């Protein structure tokens, strides 16, 4: 197993060090597990439209009532995101994925006993939807926890399972229904869903922070030599009022440490301390330093750490550092937990790649004088629902509605809401639309396979292009959505199989930008610090929009006798969502200008003379 860079100091706790992602090793097993989960979960979700057609015929229901099955499932899957994040923060990706697979399989399994569409609202919509929600978020977060430098590549492999799953499940579902009926087909897919338990078990947790490594006597001795040199230089500088050019005493030190009166004071204090060894204090005995100078071999021999004071500090650090295992996984404390793009897109990473890992951790500060954090402490959400502090922290982070005061985020949220209204309409109705044109059922189902493979290609190509410094990612995102919307709206004019294939390929390719670039665009617009909050709110609004999109299109079909109006609506919403985002640069300039004027007024008010 490969190892990451040296651990970084955790600013929240001096006794802890942040463990950087290993960027490989077991992480590739995690990528494989996430890839397979995407194949199964998204494969079923995006081909549910094949079941919808069968259920409309079996229960003699209209398009609107039957489409609520898919809408509720997708809406619950997305809308449960903030709740799932709180559970992941407490119990970890592996546990939540396994529980989610069990719930989803249970919901699908008992659906085979349903005698009405209303029953399927509960079994597939609510139960399976929530189960897939418990699977969806950990499948992404688990990969980002293991990768930093190679994150874009790793997450790209994982999410490609979505398109490949759609490609595989479309003909598979069609064949199963033709052979065993919809009940038998659903039962077999239930068994397939249970495989998510095995793949979820691959999500082995990583410790997010650990007790700081105790330094050896040789390391402490080296530090003492350094400090003696600094003291001598400092005393020399104190006796010399000026320094000729090029003779700056600081340059004679081994490390670029500022040498001034404060350093002299600290050095004098250290010389007066007792000789007990500690982790973060120098040895108070100059003889060890002299020994280190006279016997260089001492520096090569690691010695045991000795000190009683250190043990108490280790107990404190161990308690805090083990929070990720005993008090909660803590994975959602990472600011970049939901970021799936290339790390070079993040200014903080470009500025200091080595120190990035330590800067993204938001481990809560120790509470109380004991220096420990009891993440099992119970708090109440809305004053009613008891939950652990780890769960509450993640939920609160995602559901901070204060971000809705940001005009840029409001516009982006409205855009995502519009996109989500139209997003699922082609997945749910494209087969039935093809059947109305007289296309055979097997060929009609294959249209979803075309969407899936085009989506995979689109994610790879658009993701690759978006990392290029010469390209404006926002314009790429906006353009892809606009083209996708126009293609969906004009699909009403597709009256043969070939034209439908062209449309499905266009839709799958361009919609890949919406799914793959959302987190990257959020970081570009709002910064990494606000990503978790922004993504959580987006999931909530996406869930609401997904809930109403297909039923509206279904109602239009039931009333007008054609899917054309529904596809017009879906395409218009997606196209509008892309076009409105072209105004973001203007909105950013206006917001910046407004903030500058407010700051100027505040400054003038503060400097105004008081009469």
TrEMBL record:
One Pfam entry name: MFS_1
CDD domains (UniProt xref): MFS_MCT_SLC16
Major facilitator superfamily (MFS) profile domain residues: 408-611
This protein's UniProt keywords: Membrane, Transmembrane, Transmembrane helix
UniProt-listed InterPro entries: MFS (IPR011701), MFS_dom (IPR020846), MFS_trans_sf (IPR036259), Proton-linked_MCT (IPR050327)
GO biological process terms on file: monocarboxylic acid transport
Membrane-topology descriptor: Multi-pass membrane protein
Annotated Polar residues bias: 236-245
Region entry Disordered, spans: 233-255, 304-329
Superkingdom as given in the UniProt entry: Eukaryota
GO cellular component, one term: plasma membrane
Gene3D superfamilies: MFS general substrate transporter like domains (1.20.1250.20)
Transmembrane segments: 39-59, 65-84, 96-114, 120-141, 153-172, 184-206, 408-430, 442-462, 474-494, 500-523, 535-553, 565-587
GO molecular function: monocarboxylic acid transmembrane transporter activity
Localization in the cell: Membrane
Protein name: Major facilitator superfamily (MFS) profile domain-containing protein
Source organism of this protein record: Daphnia pulex
């Amino acid at each position: 197993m490969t190892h990451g860079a040296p651990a970084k100091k955790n600013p929240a706790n001096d006794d802890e060090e942040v463990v950087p992602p290993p960027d490989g090793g077991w992480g590739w097993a995690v990528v494989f597990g996430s890839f397979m989960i995407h194949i199964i979960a998204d494969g079923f979700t995006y081909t549910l439209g094949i079941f919808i057609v069968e259920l409309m015929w079996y229960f003699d229901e209209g398009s609107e009532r039957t489409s609520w099955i898919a809408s509720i499932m997708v809406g619950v899957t997305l809308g449960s995101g903030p709740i799932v994040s709180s559970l992941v923060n407490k119990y970890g990706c592996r546990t939540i994925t396994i529980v989610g697979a069990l719930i989803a399989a249970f919901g699908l399994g008992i659906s085979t006993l349903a005698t009405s569409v209303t029953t399927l609202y509960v079994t597939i919509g609510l139960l399976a939807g929530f189960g897939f929600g418990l699977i969806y978020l950990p499948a992404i977060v688990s990969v980002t926890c293991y990768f930093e430098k190679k994150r874009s590549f790793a997450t790209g492999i994982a999410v490609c399972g979505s398109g490949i799953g759609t490609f595989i499940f479309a003909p598979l579902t069609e064949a199963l229904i033709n052979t065993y009926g919809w009940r038998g087909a659903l039962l077999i897919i239930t068994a397939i869903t249970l495989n998510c338990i095995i793949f979820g078990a691959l999500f082995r947790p990583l410790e997010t922070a650990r007790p700081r490594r105790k330094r050896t006597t040789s390391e402490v001795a080296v530090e003492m030599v350094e400090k003696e040199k600094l003291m001598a230089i400092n005393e020399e500088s104190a006796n010399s009022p000026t320094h000729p050019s090029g003779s700056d005493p600081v340059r004679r030190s081994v490390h670029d440490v500022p040498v001034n009166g404060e350093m002299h004071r600290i050095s004098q204090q250290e010389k007066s301390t007792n000789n007990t060894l500690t982790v973060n204090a120098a040895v108070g005995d100059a003889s060890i330093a002299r020994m280190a100078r006279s016997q260089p071999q001492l520096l090569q021999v690691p010695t045991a750490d000795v000190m009683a004071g250190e043990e108490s500090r280790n107990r404190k650090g161990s308690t805090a550092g083990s929070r990720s295992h005993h008090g909660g996984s803590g994975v959602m404390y990472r600011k970049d937990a939901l970021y799936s793009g290339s790390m070079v897109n993040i200014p903080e990473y470009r500025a200091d790649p080595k120190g990035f890992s330590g800067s993204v951790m938001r481990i809560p500060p120790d509470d109380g004088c004991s220096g420990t954090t009891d993440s099992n402490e119970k708090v109440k959400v809305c004053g009613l629902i008891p939950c652990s502090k780890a769960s509450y922290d993640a939920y609160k982070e995602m559901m901070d509605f204060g971000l809705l005061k940001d005009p840029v985020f409001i516009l982006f949220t409205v855009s995502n809401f519009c996109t989500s209204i139209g997003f699922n309409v082609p997945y749910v109705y494209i087969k039935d639309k093809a059947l109305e044109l007289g296309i055979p059922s097997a060929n009609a189902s294959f249209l979803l396979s075309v969407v899936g493979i085009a989506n995979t290609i689109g994610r790879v190509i658009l993701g690759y292009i978006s990392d290029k410094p010469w390209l404006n990612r926002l314009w790429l995102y906006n353009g892809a959505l606009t083209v996708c919307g126009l293609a969906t709206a004009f699909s009403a004019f597709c009256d043969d199989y070939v034209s439908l294939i062209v449309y499905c390929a266009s839709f799958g390719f361009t919609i890949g930008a919406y799914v793959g670039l959302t987190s990257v665009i959020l970081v570009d617009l709002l910064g990494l610090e606000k990503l978790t909050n922004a993504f959580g709110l987006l999931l909530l609004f996406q869930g609401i929009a997904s809930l109403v999109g297909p039923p509206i299109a279904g109602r239009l079909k039931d009333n007008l006798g054609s899917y054309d109006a529904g596809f017009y609506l879906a395409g218009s919403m997606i196209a509008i969502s892309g076009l409105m985002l072209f105004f973001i640069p203007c909105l950013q300039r206006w917001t910046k200008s407004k903030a500058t004027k407010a700051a100027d007024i505040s400054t003038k008010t503060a400097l105004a003379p008081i009469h």
